[in-house]
Amino acid sequence: MLLPLAGMAQEQQAQPQAQQNQQAPAGQAHHRMHKRHQRRMAMMAQKLNLTDQQKQQMQQLRQQNKEQAKTIRNDSSLSDADKKAKLKALHQQSHEQMMGLLTPEQKQQFEQMKQEHQKNKSN
């Protein structure tokens, strides 16, 4: 899915904040994480030059994914390993759906962003 890859440039900046988040109450940490996610998505949308329709479709997919993930996490009949496997499959499915919304040029740009992120991550 695009979500974890969207914060490429800001991930390094988030490192000091992560330490602060460990000391903050869970609600505050969640709020900061949500705001950081929103900034990452806006940055990705800008860099990929997404159309308004693409932005709307991606938002709908993210909302559906969020609801499905919550259902999986709250399913007491699943073991932790089963939940992890289902969430991983959901993540992969969501990524494929979002990639399907991109034009060939946007996919190429995204792959370049992904490679740059991986290069920066290894440094």
Class derived from helix and strand content: mainly alpha
Give the CA-based shape: globular
* Overall pLDDT confidence: 81
List low-pLDDT spans. Answer: 1-22
Distance between the termini: 23 Å
Tell me the Rg in angstroms.
16 Å
How many separate helices? 5
Please describe the biggest sheet, giving its number of strands, its sense, and whether it closes into a barrel: none
Helix content: over 70%
Task: Tell me the fraction of residues in β-strands, as a range.
Answer: under 5%
Which secondary structure elements does this structure contain, and how are they paired or packed?
Blueprint: H1 11-23, H2 26-48, H3 52-73, H4 80-101, H5 104-122
Helix pairs in contact: 3-4
Gist of the model:
The chain has 123 residues and is mainly α.
Please tell me about this protein's structure.
With 123 residues, the protein is mainly alpha-helical. It has one domain (11-122). Helix content is 80%, strand content 0%. Helix 3 (52-73) packs antiparallel against helix 4.
Identify the notable features of this structure and list them briefly:
123 residues, disordered N terminus, mainly alpha, 5 helices, 0% strand
